[in-house]
Amino acid sequence: MSAFVFALGMTLMHFLWQGLLLGCVTAAALTLLRNSRAEYRYLIACSALFVSLCWPVLDLFQRLNGDAMSASASIPALPWSTQAIAEDSNWFNLLDSMRGIVSAWALCAAVLALRMIAGLLWIDRTSRQPATCNHQEQLRWEASLSRLAQRFGVSRTVRLRVIDTLSSPVTAGWWRPVVLVPAALIGRMPPDLLEALLAHEMAHIKRHDYLINLLQSVIETLLFYHPAVWWISNRIRIERELIADDTAARQLGEPRRLALALSELEKLQFSTHQLAQAANGGNLMMRIQHLLRPAPQALNWKTAVAMLGMAMACLSIYAEATAADKQVSDRVKPVVDFNTCAKPVWPQAAIQEQRTGTVKLAFLIDRNGKVGDSKVEHSSGHADLDEASRAGIEKCTFKPATKAGKPVESWTHLQYVWILE
What we know:
The protein is of the alpha+beta class. 59% of the residues lie in helices and 13% in strands.
């Protein structure tokens, strides 16, 4: 377990520079594509978020398997097993730090996961509640939604629920999608504008955006500590809303109607935080401008300078990590000279009672190659065999461990197998 905790802690720490690098590359790509179609920017952002999940997973796999050629500048000479960690007392402090980092990460991730699960349960419970409007009104909007589904080529049954507690239309579900419509909109928004908002929701269903949004939430839960992950995920939501607007406008044949619906939604000052897909996602004014009068975006040089600064910081962190890796990789483990080891003396009482067993020892090799201390990590079950093993190992001479070419104290392991022939 200690080996896994150590590897996970190092993986989380290395993702600080990895995530920063991904953020810089993504920001540069999105800047270059600022006047291209939203689909291209959406693909770039989704790819970056997917890589930010795969990179640390691959890094962790390589660490646990001792791959010294990890592409993420992992530390090749770090001891990945509990046994190897114990070879140097300095690693105990590092392992304690990793335990603290992993514990804090796990606690925060668990809280966010419970929050996400609670949101999903709320959506599921809400979608099962009976409609709050009258039956005729419910049937009318169900028929309208059914017609929109046919126009969008959605073959699955799309349910509709009118809910009092919502502030904006929300789409949830993939296999059995449901559109939740606030009761306030039924009475306050003109029917043709509300239909335009429903067309926007139908575009999300057509594109299976709910599944991507769930994956985003999972990645945000696991990598919550990195701002680049939240920024990339937010850009995905912005571009996704623009794509859904374009898709709905093409099906309606009236971009202006959808723009008016969004404008009316902004006037009602609805909240913008929803776990599922909502019509009020993203910047409403930007979306309205995108529908009515799309204009080329000029390069923001202040943003470019900030991106350059982040890139330099990323390179600096990477250089530090690489330097630390090289320093640790110069470490050489101690080597025993078996010619100096005397055969351990078998206790007479153990011979008479035919005792056998395996003794696993941990011992400290000082800078002169002598055994400075020793302890029994796994007993044979017989105290006299354990003590005979300790006495035997203290007679051996070692070539001491070195770090950067200099002898250092180091813990190592050896085992004696006591068998009767």
